Amino acid sequence: MNELQEMQACRALPFEEALRYATSLAEILRQMHRDGTVYGRLDPKNIVWDNESVKLLQNYGGASAPYLAPEQVRGEAADARSDIFAFGVVLYELISGRRAFPAQDPEELKAQILESSPSAIEGIPEGIASLLRGCLEKDRDFRWQRMNHIVIELKLANASARQAQSASEWREKVLSLRLHAAEQDERMAAHQQFQDSLAADIQRIEEIQAAIQESIARLQRGAQHNAKAIEGLQVAASQTDEVVEHVVEAFGMMHKSMVEHGDTRVLPDARDGR
User: Distance of CA 66 to CAs 85, 139, 163, Å?
Assistant: First the structure.
């Protein structure tokens, strides 16, 4: 068991945790008021907790000056609304980590309780800010009148805080999923770009292969034409040889005939062109 005062001394509690303790404390006070009992000395040193449960000490001393309601400062009798004021002071301290009325000088502290409003706590829901203002009204007739209403407001605030937390977690999950999807899109885009580049390279290779095959085909056609030309030249050369042989043979026959008939004219030699 620990005194709540020790828990508050260093820093404010996390908001949801502060609401949890405050709700437990409010339910204790609500039951006391239903039973017709006014606590009248609500003070962190009179509050103890064990894990998440809260208890009020019944045989402890009176409240410290910073937790007195204005009517108690004026010497008037406390009632249930005085407990509500003190509850507001404790709730303020649970959430903010500082005292609602921080003056050290007794007279200045009395003046703060009777005349001054605590500085606003930044970043809390408006429902809790309104609850604090209602608890800390100087005139008890304008203050929250019943702890039952405060318990309801705190439970609503707890539910809203849980919903806000759930919404925040879902926002983080959605953001994470969006980032993951964006990363997947980037990878898919890079993969598609690689595929497009690879397809373009393959197309260029196929075009080069087609050009090479066409060149080979042209060379083959040219070789065929050259082979036919060579074959024609060979045929022509063969035919030329035959013609020459016929011419030589003809000259030989003419020469023989002339010799036989006594013609002594010299014929040109077909073989040497004379």
Answer: 11, 17, 34
Question: Coil, strand or helix: which one is 126?
Answer: helix
Q: For residue 70, what are the domain limits?
A: 2-145
What is the C-alpha to C-alpha distance for residues 119 and 114, in angstroms, rounded to an integer?
15
Q: Using CA atoms, how far apart are residues 269 and 274, in angstroms rounded to an integer?
A: 5
CA distance 266 to 272: 14
Dihedral sign (CA 198, 199, 203, 206): positive
Place of tokens 């030589």: 248
**Among 191, 140, 150, 167, which Cα is nearest to 28's?**
150
**pTM attached to this predicted model:** 0.60
pLDDT for res 234: 74
Neighbouring-strand partners of residue 48: 3, 55
CB 6 within 8 A of CB 32: no
One-letter amino acid for residue 64 of the chain? S
Q: What's the CA gap between 211 and 155, in Å, rounded?
A: 83
88 three-state secondary structure: helix
Say if residues 89 and 100 touch (Cβ distance below 8 Å). Answer: yes
CATH number at 30 reads 1.10.510.10
Residues 6+ apart with CB under 8 A from 243: none
The span from the CA of 185 to the CA of 175, in Å, is 15
Cα–Cα–Cα angle for 20, 53, 118, rounded to 5 degrees: 45
Average pLDDT by stretches of 10, the chain with 274 residues? 53 84 94 95 87 78 89 96 97 94 96 96 93 97 96 90 61 64 76 84 86 84 79 73 72 74 59 50
